[in-house]
Amino acid sequence: MGLVDLLVVALIPVAKVLLVTGVGLFLALDRVNLLGPDARHHLNKLVFYVFGPSLVAINLAQTITFDSFLTLWFMPVNILITFIIGSALAWLLIKITKTPKHLQGMVIGCCSAGNLGNLPLILVPAVCEEPNNPFGDSSTCSSNAGAYASLSLAVGAIFIWSYAYGIMRSYANSCKEDSFTTTIQTSKEMSNSEAVSESYRQALLPSKDRLASDEYLTHELPLHNLATQEKISVFKKIFQCINTTMKKINLKEVLAPSAIAGIVGFIVGTVSPIRQLLIGADAPLRVIGSSINLTGEATVACMTLLVGANLLKGLKGSDISPSIIVGIIAVRNILMPLLGIGIVRAAQHFGVVGSDPLFRFVLMLQYALPPAMAVGTMTQLFQVGQSESSVIMLWTYVVAAFSLTIWSTVFMWLLV
């Protein structure tokens, strides 16, 4: 297949995403207001709690078996690598651009957490639907594509709401503590005159009162066993460290509905008796599987409309430095895909990713995705960098419309 044919195959899915995203942006305009803040809030909840989990569960249940899972184990590892590399590049970007402290957590989140759910669910099956796709029969390709994209969504949700959430929450809390410390220092400066008056009063105390005060200050407390105190102190520090770490990880979000649905779908797919009850044309309880599949079909359309509607906030602009935006775009659209090609090729060389070119295509694609929309949700949750994140999302997704086409073409050219 020629390079031009591969470019067309890569362009069609991206064009579909752009068209539906444009519709979502139009529906969110104030003069239309069909996807206003309240509507987006409720639709987002439906996708988060109902549509998305249904799609993940049924795709995994239909295509994942115990044998096939042995060939997919590298995907969670690959996603973890994307987060680690993205964080390292974000750290360099922060040092180079001298990013303000209140935006550093958001920059790390944008560079490390890619859109591992929405876009693979849209792009990968759409590539398979093209009659001249390089991955073989359209029906088999679409079935496998749904499973790979669903696994990416489930694993990505866990990493985003544990790894990225913990880092962004840590930076947000640090900024709030610095702000609180500054307020305390200001209050202390304002009360300097009161402190000076108190020192004069102490100096004018009678000698007997001063002596009593000195005796009070030098009064020895009862002695305890020093070794016992040290042991208690060590255990207390360990407990505080564990408690702090657990607080930084929002277990409720880590076990998001999509992640739970992924676990359920994996169990149904790999446990043969349950699979025979629910999956297949002759399954006794096939109506349950069909109903879940029908519910999940609404996911892609709703997700894409929400992406367009959420980008509207970025049009209003903010005071963020252009160098930070350019840096994030360079990390997500140039450096990460190049490193991804090397990592996946190395994994293929050592025989850990199998021979399916579609699976390797999904692994490479995970390095070329724009930032996850969940990063914007986290900035709203922590009340830090909301307007800046909207602008970053707008420009990264505009650039991704072109970069995803180019990188998808390159990935397919390398794999076929």
TrEMBL record:
Transmembrane stretches, start-end: 6-26, 46-66, 72-94, 106-127, 147-166, 254-274, 294-312, 324-346, 358-382, 394-415
Sorted UniProt keywords: Auxin signaling pathway, Endoplasmic reticulum, Membrane, Transmembrane, Transmembrane helix, Transport
Gene Ontology biological-process entries: auxin-activated signaling pathway; endoplasmic reticulum to cytosol auxin transport
UniProt GO cellular component terms: endoplasmic reticulum membrane
Compartment(s): Endoplasmic reticulum membrane
Superkingdom to which the source organism belongs: Eukaryota
Bilayer topology annotation: Multi-pass membrane protein
Record family assignment: Belongs to the auxin efflux carrier (TC 2.A.69.2) family.
Function as written in the Swiss-Prot or TrEMBL entry: Involved in cellular auxin homeostasis by regulating auxin metabolism. Regulates intracellular auxin accumulation at the endoplasmic reticulum and thus auxin availability for nuclear auxin signaling.
PANTHER family linked to this entry: PROTEIN PIN-LIKES 1-LIKE, PTHR31651
Protein name: PIN-LIKES 1
Organism: Hibiscus trionum (Flower of an hour)
